[in-house]
Amino acid sequence: MTHPLLSSSHVPLWSEDFAADPHRAYAQMRSLYGPLVPVELTPGVPATLVIGYAQAVRILNDPDRFPADPRQWQDSVPDTCPVKPMLEWRPNAIRSQGQEHARYRGANVSALQTVNQHWLRTLVERVCDRAIEQFLADGRADLLNQYAQQVTFQALSDLLGCPDDIGQRIAEGMLELFDGVNAVRGNITLGRAVADLVTLKRQRPGYDITSRLLEHPARLSDTEMSHQVVTLYGAGIEPVVNLITNALLKLLTDPVVSGDVHAGGASVREALDIVLYRDPPLANYCFSYPPYPVEIDGYLLPAREPVVISMAGCNNDPALGGAGSASGDRAHLAWSTGPHACPARPIAYLIAETTITHILDALPTMTLACPAHQLTWRPGPFHRALTRLPVTFPAVIRDSGPR
What is the pTM of this model? Predict the structure, then answer.
């Protein structure tokens, strides 16, 4: 049966139907269109979705023909466009080219490299303990909102030296940006919060990523600093939370993967890589904007129209020979590749791996609290994100000690 999304000339990535069953949509897109697919990011905003692995790798490594700067495109899009705040130009590495890209990326890489991995693991374990303690006696929990979200948010805020009140505003703004529903409001909330963090760190620097960015020889302005922080939060909250929950869902519903991990035949890291192939948390991203019509493998891509890499579609490209199901294979595009590849991969892996390992150790007999087909996915063109992940387990009542 044909996927209902494919009845129009442009596949709507914003619809609930796509969010509910994207893999069937990718397969049928491939049969109808091949590796490059006409899509809509939101009603009336066309783009080309790349679902061919080979084509994606070429595009991601060709910044001259596929630059990341969106300014020519965004000038043609109204301010009310719900995806514009997510894609608009910012003075950061993701949206820049040439010397500016090198300057921003260099500052970010330098700051990220100051993170002590042993300290970070200890921090995440401590935050995990606090989160688990809140629901341990209940016998049930929502591992997305009560666990993965809280742990990731607190760990990233500590890494950036961000107080809880500012961090909460940043998290709220980022959520609205990714959903693409109240994106304009989210963009405003986010901008004000990160500006407050930069002001605070200029006044009271510490041993954190934000302070290291401020001290970097690139001498970033307050505006540039705010956009670096937005980028770090954008990469550090939503995608990591969804990686954790997607991996936990895999472990709760796939007896082969779960059995291998519990029996010691596979590591949590290998389980993460399986999920990064099959259901990467950032499913469709890595935007570029050809300045002139560009031909690739017989397809002519329009000038100044977004080209979107589908990490989920590319990773599951049949041309890879089914590598997406191979434990331990890390040739996926979930971290992107080329000059814009994610520089925070070791940190994201550590947070996700530690968070999952900790909950498996604490609640080894937990089970999904509803049939998997009853779980719902958040609509939106960018992410692969559950709305909740409910589990049940034997309640644990802590001994309060002698009276």
Answer: 0.90
